[in-house]
Amino acid sequence: MTKHPLDGCLAKLSRAQTHYQQLGDEVARFLELKPYRVVIKTDYASRTKRGVVTVGQALPDTISLLAGDLVHNLRSALDLLACRLVELNTGDHTLRRRAKPQFPIFCDPDEYSIRGAAMVRGAPDAACALIEQLQPFSPKNGPWDNPCASTPKRHPLWVLHSLDIVDKHNDLNVVGCARSVPYINISNGGMQWLGGSGGLTSIGITYKGEMLSPELHMPSKVNWPIQEGAELWLVKFPQHDIAMQVEDGSSFDLAIEQQDPPDVPQTLMETMTTLGNTVINVVNAFAPFFPPLPSPPKDDKCEGLSQSGDAQSR
Known about the structure:
By secondary structure, the protein is of the alpha+beta class. 35% of the residues lie in helices and 19% in strands. Helix 1 runs antiparallel to helix 2 and helix 1 (7-32) runs antiparallel to helix 7.
């Protein structure tokens, strides 16, 4: 049976789909153990209560390994795509062993001109133009606006490329993170103060220098990576009100450390979903350069890592 040029690329995506599902299951099992908890510590001398993280479970190696495998299959799918574009245009099926085409990913347009274009030399001119349009530095990624044009190191393709390089030499660093700005419920009888919903660094009411209500202090950024003893919040109380009840509503998840992380991280699974869907969109964008497959794809999509179009059916 004659193989379609995209068979290897689609096989990599299918394998990434399997890793995605396995990773999601492992993450869910780990978080069900409630590995991160908040202990409320009271200091009567300073009239404060602090929310301090305690880590009760070590992160299993399986999660980092599965994340690395998923990343590598996604990156390999792009490199296979580049090889097939060159082979399709030149008819030279030995070129991949000699010239080793690969899908270029660059943050700097000058560096792309010097090194990137040569990585797909021999591909159709229209495909080369589209590859350049999809670069992290490009204002437009093909038909889509590029919201990361001013911060190209946060572009999904660059994140994918960087993580794949890291995974070749080290385990990906998966860490705990506070899922959202801590939600604090402070109450005393019929009175109640709620903190955190607005992401304020501090709240409190004073009158003529005297504190009338609890003062809540939080970090200006969501705490990550979560470490033993990390302080999520601090409440300072008016005189004699230290007995007020404080209820912590912090939630936790996992994230992956990156070169240029956002202030509020995506969770690990959100990151993998973004990377997977980005690669699928790229493969679909090049599908018109190839002959259509004789049969429609098997419907094995899952929530999150799913195809926005079908490369196989074009």
